[in-house]
Amino acid sequence: MKVEIRSFLFKLFNLILVACILFAYQAYAAKRQKKADTYAEELAEYKKAVAEAEHKYQDGVYEGSGMGYGGEIKVSVTIEDHTLKRIEVLSAAKETPEYLAAAEKLLDEIVAVQSVDVDTVTGATLSSNGILEGVEEALKKSEG
């Protein structure tokens, strides 16, 4: 009889142990699934934001202006396929030619990074700021 009780308790202990393992695994799996669902939602939001950003600018040619060292600097921004393709300085009548020439180096950099978030040119900071302001104004006009 003691052998039977001992066998029964051993089997009961094993059954409880298996039930605890299954319960723990279920909790672990539920937690991982919740993380996976959260990740999937964040990924979907990110993809949506990227898609919106890619089509942020409407195709066309837009103008903007900003204040440089010598006064107003007018720029033209060309958008093709929702991408910044070209920037030109239209006028900067009162700008010092040397400062303007140095600051115009920003134009290619802005196009390369597709943003006005670039550093100004040392020695031509005010002219650089005028160009950046003009490009930013033009880009705002192109937003859809």
What's the short story on this structure?
With 144 residues, this protein is α+β, with helices and mostly antiparallel strands. The longest helix has 53 residues, at 2-54.
Can you tell me about this structure?
- The protein is α+β, with helices and mostly antiparallel strands.
- It is built from four helices and three strands; from the N terminus they run αβββααα.
- It has helices at about 1-55, 95-105, 105-115, 125-140; strands at about 60-65, 70-80, 85-90.
- It has a three-stranded antiparallel β-sheet.
- A hairpin with a 2-residue loop joins strand 2 (about 70-80) and strand 3 (about 85-90).
- Helix 2 (about 95-105) crosses helix 4 (about 125-140).
- The chain is rod-shaped, with a radius of gyration of 32 Å.
- The relative contact order is 0.14.
Helical content band: 55-70%
Uncertain ranges: none
SSE order, one letter for each helix or strand: HEEEHHH
The main β sheet shows up as: 3 strands, antiparallel
Can you list the strand order of the major beta sheet? 1-2-3
Mean pLDDT: 90
Number of strands: 3
Please name the CATH topology of the largest domain: Sufe protein. Chain: A
Structural class: alpha+beta
Strand content: 15-25%
